[in-house]
Amino acid sequence: MDAATTDSTSDRAPAGRPSRLTRRSLQDPELTGMTRQQLSELTDALTPALEVQREQVLRTRRGHERLVAPGTGAKAKLTPADRILVTVLHLRKLATMDLLGQLFGVTAMTISPVPW
Predict the structure, then answer these.
(1) Calpha distance 57→90 (Å, rounded)
(2) What is d(CA 31, CA 93) in angstroms, rounded to the nearest whole number?
(3) Does 75 score more than 50 pLDDT?
(4) By percentage, how much of the chain surpasses pLDDT 90?
């Protein structure tokens, strides 16, 4: 086998195993329906509102304002950017909640309550 043949096959996943998907591959314009720049701009525009919304949900759950500084307690399992990407992929009907959960390393229950 020559070097060219070896190099071309080393980029593929082993037979029977899916290649590993990355966040970047899930942001592909063919999947999202928008350029990476547009997705980035959307994420930048929505992230502050998502943070405010999350804090309101936590405040409602606690029943009062927070007593300690932000950053303590349980961390969100999905970043705001991931939540936006999950929503875009789901709204484009590209994946079920179960599949999105597997792709993002969380359960479908974590994915499904992404509020909008």
Answers:
(1) 23
(2) 10
(3) yes
(4) 34
Residue 73 in tokens: 């307690």
Tokens 């994915």 locate to 111
- 29-65 pLDDT, tens digit per residue, is 999 999 999 999 999 999 999 888 888 888 888 888 8
Cα–Cα dist 53/90, whole Å: 20
**Number of C-beta neighbours around residue 100 at 10 A:** 23
Within 8 A by CB and 6+ apart from 110, the residues are 77, 78, 101
Other Cβ atoms closer than 10 A to 104: 21
Alpha-carbon torsion 46, 39, 21, 11, what sign?
A: negative
Domain boundaries, the chain: 24-111
pTM: 0.69
DSSP secondary structure code for residue 107 in this structure: -
Which secondary-structure segment (H or E) carries 6? helix 3-10
